[in-house]
Amino acid sequence: MAAEQDAPTAAVVVDPDGMVSGWSEGGRLLLLGWTAEETVGRPVTDLLVDRPPPGFPEDYGAGPTGFIPLRHRDGSTVDAVVAANPLLGPDGRALGHVVTVQRWASRPVIADRAFEQSPFALGVYDPELRFLWINASSGRVIAHSEEQVLGKKYREVLPEFDRSLFPERDDKPYTDRLSEVARSGKPARLITVFRPLGSNYANAWATSIWPVRDAEGRVRAVANWGFDMSAEYWARQRLLILNKASGGIGRTLDVIGTALELATTPVPGFADLVTVDLFDEVLRGDEPPSVSAFTPGETIVLSRAARHSAKDDTDRAPGPTTPVSHTPGSVAARCMATGRSTVELAAEPGQGGEWAFGPGLAADPAHWPPGNPVIDGAIAADGLTGRITVPLRARGALLGVVAFSRRDRPEAFTADDLILAEELTAKAAVAIDNARRYSRERTTALTLQRSLLPRGLPTQEAVEVASRYLPGGTGAEVGGDWFDVVPLSGARVALVVGDVVGHGLHASASMGRLRTAVRTLADIDLPPDELLTHLDDLVLHLSSDLQPAGHFEPTGEFGATCLYAVYDPVSRRFTLASAGHPLPLVISPDGTTTPVAAQPGPPLGIGGLPFESTELELPEGSLLALYTDGLVQSRERDADQGVAELQRVLDRSAASLEALCDTVMGAMLPERRTDDAALLLARTHALDPHHVADWDVEPDPAQVPRARKFAVDQVEAWGLEEASFVTELVVSELVTNAIRYGEPPIRLRLIRDASLICEVSDASNTAPHLRRARDFDEGGRGLLLVAQLTQGWGTRHTTNGKTIWCAQALS
Q1: Which residues in the chain come in under a pLDDT of 50?
Q2: Partners of 486 in the beta sheet?
Q3: Helix, strand, coil distribution of the chain in percent, nearest 5
Q4: Dihedral through CA 411, CA 412, CA 418, CA 421, nearest 10?
Q5: Rounded distance, CA 528 to CA 575, Å?
Q6: pLDDT at 351
Q7: Which residues contact 226 (CB under 8 A, 6 or more apart)?
Q8: Dist. CA 354–CA 249, nearest whole Å
Q9: Which residue, 770, 757, 753, is CA-closest to 808?
Q10: How far separated are the first and last CA of the chain, in Å rounded?
Q11: What CA–CA distance (Å, rounded) separates 441 from 477?
């Protein structure tokens, strides 16, 4: 057995006449058992079991090329592989052949055949990357036979492997990897993506490269092997695109933004150009039209919501959308009508009538859904090699249509690509429909909120005001921020700002309730602390009304903050109370900040806790800034930092409060805000002391004529003679009622402001009320007369009693 291993090959010399002229010892030990004495001089054909094959031995000179059964000395048959090489003399004349014989079952032969017939591509190269050997599979991959490449350098045969298919990834060319292994002696494993010669598809190969060493450990060659893993590779690439879509589509509740995310996600890994066309109703947040609403032959007009191309790297969004018409019979119109996708190819990608499908599950046309693909050479005029058109549907509604196009690559779309396009579209359709529904709710909430907020601030002389309200960004729902300016009696004015907990329609509706309640309570001239107490009771009642009647009815959280302040231009007194709301900033005319030493009370809806009023005396021209927390608080800064920034931005010397509002909103609000923000600026005015006159009235009916004369003289001194008659009647009635039904001290005050105001105060808490007098009643007509002759009248309670007032319009 040892002898057999030492003599793996037998050598036989055959002369030109076919006679054996030489016989090696291996012939006896390894193969046939014949000795040299028994074989030399005999025809070589005596060693064959059958008649010699054609051309034997002349045509067997290309290595181990033939399987031939030989006759053993004991009569048995030996399977062998035979190779013949010519034997030449000094003069070049043929002296015969040297025939080498190996057992078919020997390790060299088996190994040789195994490597040659391996389905994997195998190759061996010297350290300079010259081809030493390749198997048949490798030859098919590189489209060269072994004879064509032996001795040539790798870069000469395969120049395309000398550059990276994906230079944007900084991948090393495959040739450099081979050289690196030859130089370092360290094996390498990698995935190589390349496009074989004559193929329209890039293939992915799992490749191993290792050094081949001699007995001394020196690198004498480099070997590699690889197998085609395109199906697995491209399936993974499709999963990566879907994974990218999961995190990249639907990040915002914006229809245009979501359409752009759909257009950009598959470029350039899957398509070169993506367009998204939507119905105008979808862009507005309305319900999309029904497919049945379109008559046959009608052109469908959509809006190009997004377009992204790898060629010019442009995004068509979120600017004005462009109308796009899809004529009857067009692919897009047909897809929308039938609800089925269509794949168009510029030409059959195969040769000789055979389909050249890309790697993946779609190995043959049977994997295509019915009607696909459509061969349409017309798309080539647009520079396209293929296009997939998918209707954009969600929850049974048609939203539009999406087109995925290829134009910069030869690969045609496959059935697997159609599945991917439909998956991307389905994912985006749900996100677009969610954005549409959110847009509709947000528009409704904004409309409701803006209808409840004051469209214009009322005319009054106490303060100059300007305001701004901005809802949260498109990714946030509308909140419940609000503000108001309420004229009060005595030339005073109330400034209100508040914030309702939560977002959406619920918050907007709750804000409207609170604003209406504040105006109602302000009309009865409640002081700030009492007004917030009543408002707190209202919120408690509203919260109980919102409790669900059943187990499955959702309930909304209802709470709010509110700041209510009253400014009196006569006394320059500023009185305020807060229910959990940020205190206002007060900046004096000299630029110093006046501290507001007030303690905010609890937010509305807590109940059982008191509210406290704080009073300040302000210099004329003071700047007041009332705001909600959305203006000063964000993810980037806390409330204290925001208030400090607001104080820095406020410019007391600004000529226009409107311009100052714009400056503040631009400086304070981030581009991507998540909460509503409201700002109310007011610059205080002081009433000229000469426009206020008051007189103490003794509780004696005889003082009524004196009071009338005092009022008439003052009105005429102001140059308001036309108002003297009504003023005389009003003063007479109010002073008479105060003497008859009130308690001393009694005081009469006249104020000339935008209107002529008459006030009579006394220490009684009993408030008069308007009633209808019968024909024979001696009283009850005084207040009716006051109400008919003046612009308005009312009662306000103070800590010392009450004040009855009325106002006359001045022409």
Answers
A1: 1-7, 62-64, 168, 351-364, 475-476, 550-557, 773, 775-779
A2: 494
A3: 35, 30, 40
A4: 50
A5: 7
A6: 39
A7: 120, 121, 141, 192, 205, 206, 207, 208
A8: 38
A9: 757
A10: 134
A11: 9
Q: Strand 203-213 and strand 322-326: pairing?
A: unpaired
Contact present, 482 and 453 (Cβ < 8 Å):
yes
Tokens of 371: 């009607």
> Contact, 486 vs 480, CB < 8 A?
no
- For residue 385, what are the contacts with CB-CB under 8 A and spacing of at least 6? 345, 346, 379, 406, 407, 409, 410, 411, 412
- Angle of helix 505-523 versus helix 415-452 axis, rounded to 10: 0
Give yes or no for a contact between 802 and 737, defined as CB atoms under 8 angstroms apart: no
| pLDDT score for 210 | 94
Taking a C-beta distance cutoff of 8 angstroms, is the pair 484, 509 a contact?
A: no
- Compute the residue count for the chain: 811
User: DSSP of 390-433, one letter per residue?
Assistant: EEEEETTEEEEEEEEEE-SS-PPP-HHHHHHHHHHHHHHHHHHH
- Closest C-alpha among 646, 682, 688, 678 to residue 663: 646
List 386's β-bridge partners, or say none: 345, 406
- Measure the CA dihedral 258/262/263/269, to 10°: 150
Say how many C-beta atoms besides its own lie within 10 A of residue 587's C-beta: 20
* pLDDT value for 608: 76
CA distances from 585 to 623, 630, 674 (A): 8, 16, 23
Q: Where are the beta strands (DSSP E) in 45-180?
A: 66-71, 77-88, 94-103, 121-125, 131-134
How far is CA 431 from its chain centroid?
Answer: 10
Q: Looking up tokens 């209802």, which residue turns up?
A: 558
Q: Tell me, what's the pLDDT at 454?
A: 66
Q: Which run of H or E residues covers position 616? A: strand 614-617
**Distance between CA 635 and CA 199 in Å, rounded?**
54
Of 575, 581, 563, residue with least CA distance to 492: 575
SS (H, E, C) 248-277: HCCCCCCHHHHHHHHHHCCCCCCCCEEEEE
181 touches 222 (CB < 8 A): yes
Are the C-beta atoms of residues 142 and 167 closer than 8 Å to each other?
no
Q: What tokens does 1 get? A: 């057995």
| pTM listed for this prediction | 0.58
Q: What's the pLDDT score for residue 296? A: 67
Instruction: Report CA 620 to chain centroid distance, whole Å.
Output: 50
Distance (Å) of CA 155 to CA 95, 166, 515: 41, 18, 81
Which residue, among 588, 513, 587, has the nearest Cα to 546 in the 3D structure?
513
Output the six-digit token pair for 490: 């005595």
pLDDT of residue 557: 46
Q: Beta strands 623-627 and 121-125: pairing type? A: unpaired
Tens of pLDDT, residue by residue over 227-255, are: 888 878 888 888 888 888 888 888 888 89
Cα 416 from chain centre: 26
Could you give the CA distance from residue 808 to residue 727 in angstroms, rounded to a whole number? 8
